[in-house]
Amino acid sequence: MATPKPTAILLVSCPDQRxxxxxLSTFITRHNGNIIAxxxxxxxxxxxxxxxxxWELDGFAFPLDRFxxxxxxxxxxxxxxxxxxxxxxxxxxxxxxxxxxxxLYDILARYESGEWPVDIALVLSNHEDHRxxxxxxxxxxHCIPVTAAAKAEAEAKQIALxxxxxxxxxxxxxxxxxLSPAFVQAFxxxxxxxxxxxxxxxxxxxxxxxxxxxxVKIIGATAHFVTEKLDExxxxxxxxxxxSHRQGVDDLVRLGRDLEKIVLSRAIYWQLQHRxxxxxxxxxxxx
Amino acid sequence: MATPKPTAILLVSCPDQRxxxxxLSTFITRHNGNIIAxxxxxxxxxxxxxxxxxWELDGFAFPLDRFxxxxxxxxxxxxxxxxxxxxxxxxxxxxxxxxxxxxLYDILARYESGEWPVDIALVLSNHEDHRxxxxxxxxxxHCIPVTAAAKAEAEAKQIALxxxxxxxxxxxxxxxxxLSPAFVQAFxxxxxxxxxxxxxxxxxxxxxxxxxxxxVKIIGATAHFVTEKLDExxxxxxxxxxxSHRQGVDDLVRLGRDLEKIVLSRAIYWQLQHRxxxxxxxxxxxx
Amino acid sequence: MATPKPTAILLVSCPDQRxxxxxLSTFITRHNGNIIAxxxxxxxxxxxxxxxxxWELDGFAFPLDRFxxxxxxxxxxxxxxxxxxxxxxxxxxxxxxxxxxxxLYDILARYESGEWPVDIALVLSNHEDHRxxxxxxxxxxHCIPVTAAAKAEAEAKQIALxxxxxxxxxxxxxxxxxLSPAFVQAFxxxxxxxxxxxxxxxxxxxxxxxxxxxxVKIIGATAHFVTEKLDExxxxxxxxxxxSHRQGVDDLVRLGRDLEKIVLSRAIYWQLQHRxxxxxxxxxxxx
Amino acid sequence: MATPKPTAILLVSCPDQRxxxxxLSTFITRHNGNIIAxxxxxxxxxxxxxxxxxWELDGFAFPLDRFxxxxxxxxxxxxxxxxxxxxxxxxxxxxxxxxxxxxLYDILARYESGEWPVDIALVLSNHEDHRxxxxxxxxxxHCIPVTAAAKAEAEAKQIALxxxxxxxxxxxxxxxxxLSPAFVQAFxxxxxxxxxxxxxxxxxxxxxxxxxxxxVKIIGATAHFVTEKLDExxxxxxxxxxxSHRQGVDDLVRLGRDLEKIVLSRAIYWQLQHRxxxxxxxxxxxx
Lengths: 287, 287, 287, 287
Prior knowledge:
4 copies of one chain form a homotetramer. The first copy, chain A, is an alpha/beta fold. The first copy, chain A, folds into 2 domains: 7-86, ACT domain (Alpha-Beta Plaits, 2-Layer Sandwich); 91-285, Rossmann fold. Chain A is 32% helix and 30% strand. Chain A has helices at residues 20-30, 67-78, 102-112, 131-135, 151-164, 181-186, 207-214, 249-272, and strands at residues 7-15, 34-43, 48-56, 81-86, 91-97, 118-125, 141-143, 169-172, 191-195, 218-225, 235-242, 276-279, 282-285. In chain A, the strands form 3 sheets. In chain A, strands 7-6-5-8-9-10-11 form a 7-stranded mixed sheet. Chain A has a 4-stranded antiparallel sheet with strand order 2-3-1-4, covered by helices on one side. A two-stranded antiparallel sheet of chain A has the order 12-13. In chain A, helix 3 runs parallel beside helix 8 (249-272) and helix 7 (207-214) packs across helix 8. The longest helix of chain A has 24 residues, at 249-272.
């Protein structure tokens, strides 16, 4: 596979208005950008326009550090909120994990085999269990135990480590501690969590036990951005698997592990590709 | 397709115990019954044994009206709860419906085309809308308006009609009224409902609106037995379909209709085949 | 639900080229069209651009009968192939059916309940079985028996009936005869078929028997446009259901019926909404 | 989780006959075996009976090395074919892999985390690429290059290594060489393969390319036992994922990797639990 040509990726949202697609696409085209992907979506109910545009950097009329200045005359009058990304700039991801390692294994396998264009800046855990696993991949591992009494202190350490490592976003790969609002606010819409149920069903602890006791015929897993409200952040991806009365709680846990790792990895992939937009506690996924 | 030979179907549950399968299968075999299907399941956690046995009536040692007397020496010491059914005895089903007709259409199509071995005893509605549709199938239709003030009276009429029509079970095919505990108690574990969400998520009214606002990536439908607690009865079947940010509430309603009719029809099919057992608010589905 | 405002829908395909989105969206915007949906897709491998644009007719600068003339200066130099449709113009659909009626029932239910904005121009069958079912919906029914000897003659009658009824497209709702190339050429990419397997697996006759004998763990159904090669036309939609060794051929047939009717109906819905483009024996579905 | 009590697992198949379940369950019960699971299935069409019985070894009347002698009077007259297994006896699995490592990673992660009760006897590859990955798990790795000219010689080495390592079964985890009939015959119904398509669609090489060119809307993966006919062995498990025109071949490959590893791992899990029976090129999966 040849290395793909580097591209710029622009994510925008703004009040829906006449001519918005024309304005955006004309801006890029006029500056000699070859648009290779344009996804747009209008939430008619809310009157909001969203788009993701990707164009080749090769031949584009000006360097991207001048984008803001050039784009401002288009963006300002239309009240466009936007972010700009480069496909040739690898994101730095941090991973937080507790004792269960299936999501961590899956992430590390994709990392080691080069499936994802990502750097793993560090792995944080509240247990020592997976130090060897992480360090054999050459990734820094920090164990910060979390106790009820010293939670604030622990989180302060975590935040400092994440920031000094330059983490662009954080993945909770079955990290079994609830993050404080202060932690969440330090990384707004930059923390992805995997919850082991089909949210909003079975939020909180022990979802497989709860699913079993309710007698559901399908179980699920949910990747979402973390907000201050536990398990209520914007959903990025979900998937499910059929179960029957024959499956005990242990079976649900076993089947669920595969769901969790796949669902989380899909969410990470989209994050790496700048395909996620958030509004009103929902996501637009330009998959 | 040749008419299948008539069979007896025995559903049993009892405390799990050594030798229970041997005792049951030996009883049938000893009386010259040719077992054509035996499904069994042990809930290890609860210590409960469940089974469904089906054998050919042809050549069986005694007529089924003597089954209780013959089976008692096996059942009594083992505390077996059981029910006996005949495959050549068509069940009588009642349907209750409000304005939305997609489930009713689906049921009537299966009825008219002979897909199900069932008699539809009657259709009850709180609206006149579907009288023509029902009556053209030669099925009695009764419109009983339900108002908050006269609900008890309306339900009394409904119960009387259901009982005098000899309904073996009742299907709520998008019947948009909440049944009182008295109504439910008149047909214990004999009322199947279709709820237009993936329960326990989005119980109650307007689940598609709620699903949209929560931003789920998959929606579902749930068939369940009705108990006194709204939308909390034992789940019989569920299915789901993937959605995205692009689907508005109207789209969810449209996609959901197909889920609802298929999920409800699967539950009815199993009910007609005596494949459902209920315990502890869960179902065993010997599908 | 308020009646939605009438819209124009433009389907385009052309060689991929710089500025194509800008050119299209600017054309509509310049003529005062409020774009409410724009889906576009570039097949990078083939170098082909596809789009579906929908805008409100209200306030658009010129009547649609002048569209060709106005759009020509945009389309011609870019070698754009296009078709234009109006959301307020109901399509006329023809249905062909043999003995199995589950898809027909499903179509008629959606028709009668007003789910689809469609007129059913007529139903053709090679059997009399469903005359009553069709005619009670006020739809013309024609029975044209098809024999090997007189197939050409039968098809000539069918084509004449379809053309004189002004059918915009034809749905084969489990029509069990193979259409001749001449028939197919009379309605190019305007015949939708439902095949009762997950194509390309089990093309041809008796797919459920073949699926059972192969021991697959999942069965499917496929809606596709009909071309001269049997079961090889462009696929519009597929769906599947899990099965196990417990399901005999009869069970697969039963489960498959529900797949078939849902899959076919999704394809029809997209056809009615002008969401389908065909190229190189594949479809672009702007769902 | 407490260690489960050791059990015996009996797999049987025989001509269907009256009293077979009673005979089997009575035999175990009479010898004081506490049956904790009994799955049975009758293929009515073929007239074959299949069962899987699991009972606790604790308290069973005789040691399992005397099972054949004791069971013979039951088995012989009924022409029962059977195999006996112990839950406390870990199987020895061999893995064969080429360059693509996603299935290997998944297997090793389950192995290292103790998800499966299995010993990995060795890993064979025709490339050196994954030596480090395998050896860091303490598993012997052998690289045996395979050329068209020296294929027989290479296979002889592989067979010798597999046999001397005492491999109970072999997993082809994306091993990209076709095994000769001689190889297959050395491990009859003991080689599990993952094929990267929804068989029987797209057998052979480059299935994702073929799926893309055919324009399917769903892709799949298939785990099957290897027989002498390429990609035609008994299917153990399949799963699928929805795709659209937007996914190029590279996307299908990426999405397919996750399918492949999950589907293969499910098949391995059932193999480890002695839940698979094969007949007439189909499988019975007592999942």
